[in-house]
Amino acid sequence: ILPGIQQGKDPLSVSIFGAFFFVAFSLYIIYGWNVKTHTAVLGSFLALVITGMLAFIFVNNARLTGYGDENMIYISQLTQNTLDVRSLLLAGILIGTLGVLDDLVISQASAVFELYRNNPNQTFTILFKSAMNIGQDHIAATVNTLVLAYAGASLPMLLLFSFRNVDYGLAINLEYIAEEIVRTMVGSLGLFAAVPITTALAALIAVKYRDMGEKMKLYLGPLNE
Q1: What span, in angstroms and rounded, lies between the C-alpha atoms of 69 and 19?
Q2: Which 3 state secondary structure label does DSSP give 223?
Q3: pLDDT band (50, 70, 90) for residue 42
Q4: 100: number of CA atoms within 13 Å, CB side?
């Protein structure tokens, strides 16, 4: 990703493909070649695309410039203002979400296939609803993790605002604060979208898997082993 940005490529597109390659590679290395991993990789890609679109909409409507981080000023000077700073902000939002996203999709896919293995006669609807009961609890805990991680990193700044009695209406309109708010909201919405998408994909594949031929099963690998 970094060499691509240095070469003048669009930071957003480079980050989407680079991040997706990293997730796919790491998931296959860790979990192996099986249907669960295929589902998680596909769910990650779809959730990543949705998160990218949400980030684009939020950043443009919030009129963020990308200069909330002072390092951006130095980067602009080094690149002689040829780098699209706003795209770099979008890329940072995507990569920040990705660390939590891959955990969420693989856990949800695993839950679906375990439910299916215990009762292979389930229909798509029953399997989806059962897995979504698990996913709702998982997404709540994951979003809390994301928000608290951002809050923990910003704790000195929040404490400074508290000491100085800064008006919160003014504070949230400062760009470096607004960037963190947008980052948290977009990341959370992306994670919310990932759960039903991955659950639906996994449930559909699980139900269809039993009707697949042996050659296709051999190619795709086992469900969850």
Answers
A1: 22
A2: coil
A3: very high
A4: 29
